[in-house]
Amino acid sequence: MKEMENGQIHLELAEVKPLVVDSLKRAGCNGENADALSECIFQAERHGAHSHGLFRMPGYLASLRSGKVNGNAGPRLSNSKPAVLSVDGDGGYAPLAHQRLAKPLAELAKQQGIAMAALTNTFHFAALWQEVEMLANEGVVALACTAFKPALPPAGGTKPLYGTNPVAFAWPREGAEPCVFDQASAVMARGEVMIAAREGHQLPAGAGIDAQGNPTTDPNEVLKGALLPFGGYKGASIAMMVELLAASLIGEQLSFEAAEQDNNDGGPPRGGEFILAIDPANGLASAEGLFGKILDQEGARLPSDGRRAKREKIVREGIQIPADLYEKIVA
Ligand code: NDP
Fewer CB within 10 Å, N or C, the chain? Predict the structure, then answer.
């Protein structure tokens, strides 16, 4: 740990997990939950996904302290139907449930060709590429989505109804890391808007509207109003699909229901996650042909290569976080 002149704290990557584990345990997490969540935060920081790394710690800690989230959760798996793995998150943060479900879900998908995990009674505050990548590393194609609290209006509307509702997809590759994309249904993630508000940056045009429904690039006004779905009505339909899969289908709360129940302590609301795993069968070689054609084009890259390029630099140089965030985590 080193204090910088710019008001930032420099951390080596090796310092991230001990810092997080200690803080989570003091807020009431047992070892298993603290380890799983700290690995998730460490991976976010290691890959430059700062809006889902240490930045989220005050929220994680607040929900442990308020008693909303169970720091001693023991996620339970059961086969409710042959192709469905039901996972009760036991009111805890999602990363431990992801660790427990990855191998059994991949195994089920390989046996049957396809399998779904219905993760309920959980609190998801992280980036979804981690769980789909975990599954691709087990050799299956994976797709996951989760809802949150209302942030996006339906197409044509001005009042938040859908969460920012991310969808993540991973394709396994032989001899290479999986090809992964992970994107919010919003023009940008709410965490990025919060960081822009904190740092005093304007948002790109088209990112959101104020509480009266007028377009604005001021992140504080967007936080009071609504973010917009990417691609207009097309993104709005994807956000709606996420509500239906990650809430209605698996028996969890829709974003607007989650907001009604939430205690607004700064952490995530209770919700669910839909995770699909598919055996790629003989599709891997064909996919390599596509990836090769993409990379043949000057200026094109695969999704996830940007994140992995950041990783190389971060592993060498470590990270910087605002001093006040560091103080909150330590205190
Ligand atoms: P981005 O718009 O930053 O990136 C979306 C995807 O596009 C990434 O997979 C990215 O890969 C890829 N990509 C970006 N540029 C290119 C390019 N030039 N060529 C090919 N692929 C590209 O992400 P979002 O802002 O939409 O989402 C941010 C995160 O927020 C996600 O991880 C999501 O899971 C998380 N989130 C979590 C929520 C929750 O409730 N838990 C709610 C909402 C969002 P790469 O990383 O390599 O650049």
Answer: C
pLDDT at 326 exceeding the cut of 90: yes
264 SS3 class: coil
CA distance 197 to 225: 14
Q: 52, 182, 192: which to mutate for ligand 1, most atoms within 8 A of CB?
A: 182
Active site residue ranges:
51-52, 192
- Cα-based angle 140, 128, 37 (whole degrees, multiple of 5): 105
Distance CA 197, CA 128 (A): 23
Residue of minimum CA distance from atom 37 in ligand 1 = 127
| pLDDT tens digits, 31-82 | 999 999 999 999 999 999 999 999 999 999 999 999 999 999 999 999 989 9
Rounded alpha-carbon distances, angstroms, from residue 217 to 85, 191, 202, 203: 43, 15, 5, 5
Closest ligand 1 atom number to CA of residue 180: 9
Could you tell me if 151 and 219 are in contact, meaning their C-beta atoms sit under 8 angstroms apart? no
Please report the atom of ligand 1 found closest to the CA of residue 124: 41
Beta bridge partners of 171: 179
Binding site membership of 146 for ligand 1 (Cβ less than 6 Å)? yes
Between the CA of 218 and the centroid of ligand 1 the distance, in Å, is: 21
